[in-house]
Structures are given as C-alpha cells and as structure tokens.
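Q: How would the structure tokens look for this protein?
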Amino acid sequence: MAGSNVREGSLDAPTRHPIDWQSESFYDEQALNDELERVFDICHGCRRCVSLCHSFPTLFDLVDESETMEVDGVAKDDFWKVVEHCYLCDLCYMTKCPYVPPHEWNVDFPHLMLRAKAVKFKKEGTSFRNKMLSSTDTVGKIAGIPVVAQTVNTVNNIKPLRKLMQPVTGIHAEATLPRFESKSYRQRFKGSGDMQADPGETTWGKVAMFATCYGNRNEPGMNEDMVAVLEHNGIPVVLAEKEQCCGMPKLELGDLESVAKAKDANIPALAKLVDEGYDLIAPIPSCALMFRQELPLMFPDDEDVKKVQQAFYDPFEYLMLRHKEGKLNTDFPNRLGKVAYHVACHQRVQNIGLKTRDALKLVPDTEIEVIERCSGHDGTYAVKKEYHEISMKICRPVTNKVKQAEPDHYTSDCIMAGHQIENGLRDGSHPEHPMTLLRVAYGI
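A: Here is the predicted structure in token form.
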C-alpha cells in the first residue's frame, strides 16, 4: 500500500500534463488497468478526498470489502464503478491531492478517469440517453421549435408522467430539467438594439461572448443580464459568428473525437475575434474551463487554441480586472441584502479566486455567504436515474448552508448548480445568476 508521506516537490504549484489522447498507448486496456491500480492504491493510502464526489467512497468501500482489504483485492471489472461516478469536477486535483505533478507520484485522478471513459467509449460506445443528453446543440434546436418547446416544458413539469417515463428515458423523475426557449439568445441579440459603440471610443476593451448552449437555448435572460452589465460599463459586446457546444458534455462521456469536432468549429471563429482585438467570455464556468484548460491540454501544439486560451476570461474575473484599473462603475443604487453564494467547481479550479464574491461585495449593504462545496450536478450526472439520489446527497451540505444563511438571494455562477440547490430546498424559491444580481444592483 502506498504511504502518505509528502515527498520533495509536493509543495510546488500543481501542473498539468498534455492529454495524449491521439496515441495508441492511451487506449491500451492493460496499461490503463495498471495505472488505475497504481493511482487507486495511492488514493486508498491517503483518503483525503472522501468528502468530494462518490468516486472515492465507492473506491474505499470496494477496498474495505475485498479479501485483502487492499486495491489488489478489487476485481478489475469493478474499477468502472469508481470511474462512472467521476464527473471531472477537478476538485480532487486542485484542492485536495498532495501527489499531483510535479510530485514524483504524478497523480492526476480526473484525467485518469477521462482516459478510462475514453477507452470504454471507444470500445463500447454509449447509450442513446447519454448521446441525447450530451448532444446539446441538436436537442436545443429541436426542443426550441415553438410548439415543441411548449410541449417539452409542460411534460417536464408533470411528475406522474415523468415517473412513467423514467424507466424508458433513464432520466430521474425528480431531477430538475432545463426549460427550453423558442427564441434563442442569438436570435434575441441580433434584434435587441444592443449598444453599437465605436470600439475605438472605449479605453479598456471590447468583448465577444460565447453564448453557450445553455445560455442560448435554456436561460437566455442570463446572457441578457451579462450584456446589460457589460454595456452599462461601456464595454461593447458581440457574439461569435459561429458557435456550437464547447464539448464539455462529450468530454465527460469520453467521446474525444466529438470534442475535437467541436474545437474545429469553435476555435477558428474565436481566434478570428481575438485577432480583431476582442476579449472572450462565457456565462457558464464549464465552457470557460474547456477553452482555458481542457482544449489546450488536448491540443498543446495548436497555436489558435493557445490564442483563445490566453484571451478567455471568467466574466467576473474580467469585471474585477477592470475594477483594479479603476474603470468599473461602482454606482449601485440598489442593495442586495444577504446573498448565499455557491462557488461552482469548474470556476474554483480556474485559480482566479472568488471574483464573483468580490464583485458582489462592491454593492453597499450586501453580505455574501460563500459556500465552497460541490452541488453534485455536473450538467448530466444529476438527471440520470442511477445517479440522481447520489447527486442530491452530495448537494445536501450546500442546501443546508443556504437554509442556515436565510438569505435574500441564493446564487451560483453555474446556474444548473443553482437549480440543483433549488431542487434540494423545495421551498418555492429560485436561484438567480450572479450577473442578474449585479444588474439588479445597478438598477438597469
């Protein structure tokens, strides 16, 4: 069993190795199982991550219930029981594990889980449900047809019907499903009379928004609030000429070829905007993470990917950088009161600090209660029938903290995590995106 002594190098800043997903050795099952056993043995000897997701309790139960009470007593076929519960939140890598590179043990648990998912996907493919849930562009276009949108939204809110459909669809009857809008944000943006300021008249930047599937088809109001706040601060906003899903849902499936196709569609359009002097933002932390971390690790030699990575910002990171330069409008006529703020995992691991909290704290007479625990949602994990109850258990500490805070508002940079909290509270309240709260504070 691996010991838990901290070796030389473990206090250095974590670093990530490129993902060698295009090599044959990446898909070698024997090599994969050997690496899984090695890393699982280290995790078993440490157990610091037991409170994060369900992967680690699953692993430790398998070890403790084996004949040897060591990893060598766990059947290789059972390794998948650990892999399937990893939704690549990255928290173990970024906040818990002392053995990440440059430590000599070289543990990158999330990317090892990604490799296992990729091997399984290449060998077996995936279910229709998983394909549907991860095909956000296609589903959004179909469900966004006016009559279809109305029907889908109605059906999604009829619990007896959802229970009947659960065995067929594989989607849990109690899971919160997104609402579909018949008029996408891209359609709204073009006809909304947005600010047409001359970029040359601004002294500190212009922004191109990657609207995201969710912001485009499910909650366009979130994007509208973001544009309103940016424009209120004198920042012109455009949308990328072409856009499709960032690829995160496919990444979580291990469908890396589909991630590559999404990259080929998005990167040229975004790189062109960077060349034109635009900074890039996205309203969903997972989408920003794809462009800032995952794609650069999958395509380390692609210069356009690097260019986009360097120009991509979290929206609140962007606003606080402007505040640091003394160029953010801090005239807030409205107070927010007490805000319970859930920090999204995919924002935490971008290493930008609590910029959303810092921005909201600029509003006078506003108290921010920060909650740094995973909501267990992941976009698709929480809606699957076999994982929903586990996801709600993961979320329970978050909902308990919201209840204890008794806030005027609760919010998360990941609006899907916000709805997961809403599902746990079940008190008729609704989450608000932090940018929506900032717009309220501005009174615009």
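The radius of gyration is 22 Å.

The CA atoms of residues 250 and 437 lie 31 Å apart.

Upvote if useful.
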